[in-house]
Amino acid sequence: MLNQSKKKLFFTAVAAASLFTVSPVRAANISLPVQPSESPVKNTLVQNTGANESFQQGLNFAAELNAARAEAAFRRVIQIDPNFAEAYANLGSILANQNKLAEALPNFQTAIRLKPNVPEFHYMLGQVLYAQNKMGDAVESIKKARDLFKSQGKTQEANSLDQVIKDMGK
């Protein structure tokens, strides 16, 4: 298992992760560069309300620290919409917090495959890899998160991850 210094670093990293939040992308938040006259369907939005409702339930259960119900809700989201990256990431987080690291890992990998430019996903994957004592892969994943934050102009988050990377080298 993890020695004391690694446990301290991991839990410091977990605390830092709580600064990062991921919100679902909804159709109402996306604007396409199409003139209204060019669009064959006007003012029509398509959403998978079942997935969104279950996702919100999962977030609420997670906030209430009800891991079993949060896990079930995120699994339901994935059944409804297998391309809902945030559901995979949140399911991975719930599983990781229950020390189900082997089960959490593919959920983060799927979230990254679906949305490779979300730095939080790479950071969470790095946390799981670190907990599994896969230092090289963990550092690589956290560096990817840092680089994505930098490219998105989120300097404070990138600097925080620089410190995490430095601490991992100790």
Features:
Serine Threonine Protein Phosphatase 5, Tetratricopeptide repeat
What does this entry show, briefly?
The chain has one domain (4-18, 47-168): Tetratricopeptide repeat domain (Serine Threonine Protein Phosphatase 5, Tetratricopeptide repeat, Alpha Horseshoe). It is built from 8 helices and no strands.
What is the topological layout?
Layout: H1 4-17, H2 49-63, H3 67-80, H4 85-97, H5 101-114, H6 119-131, H7 135-151, H8 155-168
Helix pairs in contact: 1-6, 1-8, 2-3, 3-4, 4-5, 5-6, 6-7, 7-8
Describe this protein's structure.
The protein is mainly α and about 170 residues long. The protein has a single domain, classed as Tetratricopeptide repeat domain (Serine Threonine Protein Phosphatase 5, Tetratricopeptide repeat), CATH 1.25.40. It has eight helices and no strands. It has helices spanning about 5-15, 50-65, 65-80, 85-95, 100-115, 120-130, 135-150, 155-170. Helix 1 packs antiparallel against helix 6 (about 120-130) and helix 2 runs antiparallel to helix 3. The longest helix has 17 residues, at about 135-150. The protein is globular. The two termini are about 15 Å apart.
